[in-house]
C-alpha cells in the first residue's frame, strides 16, 4: 500500500452525515497533514525493522483509517484490525464495519499465527465486549496491540506515536463516542 494511501484513507474517515461541508473540509485538511506524517512514520518504522532478525513489520502494516478504504492485496499477509471491534461498533452504535476504523496488522494467509490473530478480540463473540464503554473498548484494544508489538520486539517510539494517532483519529471521526464531555 502506498504511503499516499494513508492520507486518502484518513481524509475519507471524516465523511459523515452530521458534519457540514466546511467542517469536513477543515478536518480533512488537518487529518490529511497528520496522515502524511503518519505515512512517513509507518514507512520509516517498516524500513527500520527489515534488518531485525525474526520479526519485522510488513509493508502496509500499521496503516489505518476506515476499514472500507484500507488498501491491500491478496497475499500481502496483512488485514485490518478494528479497534473497537466491528461487531461492537455495529451492534451498539449502528456503524457499518466498512466505516469503522481499523489498523493493518500481520495476518498470514493461509496460515496460523500472526499479530492480528493474537489480539484480544480476534475470533471472539461480540457479546464479550458489548458491555464496554467506547473509550474503554478503544483503550483496551490499543493496550492489547501495544502488548503484541512489545512481545515481538517491534514496539518503538514511532509505533507508540502511530497508536496515539489512531486514538486521535478515533476522537476526530467519532467525537460523540471517544471525546470526554465536560
Kindly describe this structure:
The chain has 182 residues and is mainly alpha-helical. It has one domain. It is 47% helix and 8% strand. It has six helices and three strands. The protein has helices at residues 3-12, 21-49, 86-93, 134-151, 157-173, 175-178, and strands at 64-66, 78-82, 101-106. It has a three-stranded antiparallel β-sheet with strand order 1-3-2. The termini are far apart. The model is unreliable at 1-29 (pLDDT under 50).
Summary of the model, kept short:
With 182 residues, this protein is mainly alpha-helical.
Strand element count: 3
Q: Spans with pLDDT under 50 lasting ≥5 residues?
A: 1-29
What's the overall geometry?
globular
In DSSP terms (H or I, runs of 4 or more residues), the helix count works out at 6
Radius of gyration: 16 Å
Distance between the termini: 39 Å
Q: What structural class do helix, strand and pairing data support?
A: mainly alpha
Number of domains in the coordinates? Answer: 1
Largest sheet: 3 strands, antiparallel
Question: Percent of residues in beta strands?
Answer: 5-15%
Summary tags:
182 residues; mainly alpha; three-stranded antiparallel β-sheet; 6 helices; globular; disordered N terminus
Produce the secondary structure layout.
Blueprint (H helix, E strand, L loop, with lengths): L2 H10 L8 H29 L14 E3 L11 E5 L3 H8 L7 E6 L27 H18 L5 H17 L1 H4 L4
Antiparallel strand pairs: 1-3, 2-3
Amino acid at each position: 500500500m502506498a504511503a499516499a494511501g494513508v492520507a486518502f484513507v484518513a481524509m475519507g474517515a471524516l465523511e459523515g452525515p452530521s458534519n457540514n461541508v466546511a467542517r469536513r473540509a477543515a478536518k480533512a485538511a488537518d487529518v490529511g497533514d497528520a496522515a502524511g506524517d503518519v505515512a512517513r512514520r509507518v514507512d520509516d518504522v517498516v524500513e527500520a525493522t527489515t534488518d531485525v532478525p525474526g520479526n519485522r513489520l510488513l509493508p502496509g502494516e500499521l496503516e489505518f483509517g476506515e476499514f472500507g478504504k484500507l488498501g491491500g492485496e491478496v497475499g500481502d499477509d496483512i488485514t485490518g484490525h478494528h479497534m473497537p471491534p466491528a461487531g461492537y461498533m455495529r451492534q451498539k452504535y449502528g456503524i457499518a464495519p466498512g466505516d469503522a476504523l481499523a489498523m493493518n496488522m500481520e495476518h498470514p494467509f493461509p496460515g496460523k499465527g500472526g499479530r492480528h490473530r493474537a489480539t484480544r478480540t480476534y475470533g471472539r463473540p461480540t457479546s464479550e465486549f458489548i458491555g464496554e464503554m467506547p473509550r474503554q473498548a478503544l483503550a483496551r484494544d490499543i493496550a492489547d496491540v501495544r502488548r503484541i508489538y512489545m512481545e515481538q520486539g517491534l514496539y518503538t517510539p514511532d509505533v507508540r506515536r502511530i497508536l496515539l494517532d489512531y486514538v486521535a483519529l478515533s476522537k476526530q471521526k467519532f467525537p460523540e463516542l471517544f471525546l470526554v464531555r465536560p
